[in-house]
Amino acid sequence: MKLKSxxxxxxxxxxxxxxxxxxxxxxxxxxxxxxxxxRKDLLLHAMxxxxxxALLLRAFLNSxxxxxxxxxxxxxSAYGITDEIHQLFVPGRxxxxxxxxxxxxxxxxxLLFLFHKNAKSFKTKKGAL
Length: 129
What we know:
Layout: H1 3-24, H2 40-61, H3 68-87, H4 97-117
């Protein structure tokens, strides 16, 4: 792999994973106010891991890795698990199975977005999806 390719495709993944780690290290990463609804943290977790999965997919699709979609979802979900374990050691943060599920759900959402984006190319014989 060439350095230019690594910087273009994989450096954003590494930086974004670092940003996730940084915010997980804060006792209260989201200031009070702003979005106000029940379980907003689950939505934020899903969005956070949707982006990570998308960055991973982008990097894998531009490398020689087969099953890029599977690896993107698995690695993003695994990182979500390690993120929750990391929060066990951060004062004011807790380990949450619901957050793990939201992380994995967000990682899987990349497939839904890509399917929707490319739905016209998945036509049946009758021309309908």
